[in-house]
Amino acid sequence: FKPDGQAIDPDVSLGDALAITQRHLADTPQRPLFEGTFSKHRVLVRADIFEQTSDGWRLTEVKSSTRLKPPHLDDCAVQSWVITEAGYRVTQTVLAHVDTDFIYPGDGEYEGLLKHVDVTERIEPMLKHVPEWVAAGLDVLAGDEPAIDVGPQCRDPFACPFIAYCSPERTAYPLALLPNANRVINALLAEGIEDVRDIPEGRLTRQRQER
């Protein structure tokens, strides 16, 4: 918890967020910055926590996950690369995730809720590949829309925000209505089931999904 830090309002435009970031790091670099916004090589990233250290800058990416996952390392590598390319040398990258051993003591005291994992060395060999990822992504953006049906790939490792756009309106009750059900949805789609009314009885094991 950094009470002396500055947070950039998520509602401001990206252009304003970039300007606020540059101004903050130039005028008050000793204060941690939350949601700092950086752009380079047509890639824009927002850093959850960005702090100045004695030999550079520390980047901390916060996840609601209870453990470190491979896609988190990809995310950290891209952010570190973009920010360094933008002129702020990132010398330490940290992934913060929920610590399942945390017990809330009350009184608004959340010290220890997040477990901080230094991933600097783990992403180091990945940094050289980021330009390739960026080039591939830009090629995709420059091309036509992909001619492929919505499927499990659209939710792996995370749900794509364009699923609704790409999905034909075949039913008023799509599987997307199921909460927190990526794995279940992927399995059902693989079986050709697209409507929640066609889900076999007893297939859903979570009360929220059954409801």
Written account of the structure:
The protein has 211 residues and is an alpha/beta fold. The chain is 30% helix and 20% strand. It has helices spanning 14-27, 70-85, 120-123, 130-142, 163-166, 182-190, 207-210; strands spanning 6-7, 33-40, 43-53, 56-62, 90-98, 114-118. The protein has a six-stranded mixed sheet with strand order 1-2-3-4-5-6. The two termini are 38 Å apart.
Summarize the model shown.
The protein is an alpha/beta fold and 211 residues long.
Q: If you average the pLDDT, what whole number results?
A: 92
Our count of helices gives 7
Structural class: alpha/beta
Radius of gyration: 21 Å
Uncertain runs: none
Q: Strand tally, please?
A: 6
The geometry reads as globular
Q: What percentage of the residues does DSSP assign to strands (E)?
A: 15-25%
Summarize the amount of helix as a percent range: 25-40%
Query: How would a crystallographer describe the biggest sheet?
Result: 6 strands, mixed
* Amino-to-carboxy terminus distance: 38 Å
Strand order of the largest sheet: 1-2-3-4-5-6
What order do the helices and strands follow? EHEEEHEEHHHHH
List key phrases describing it:
single chain, 211 residues, alpha/beta, 6-stranded mixed beta sheet, 20% strand, globular
Write the layout of secondary structure elements.
Elements: E1 6-7, H1 14-27, E2 33-40, E3 43-53, E4 56-62, H2 70-85, E5 90-98, E6 114-118, H3 120-123, H4 130-142, H5 163-166, H6 182-190, H7 207-210
Parallel strand pairs: 1-2, 4-5
Antiparallel strand pairs: 2-3, 3-4, 5-6
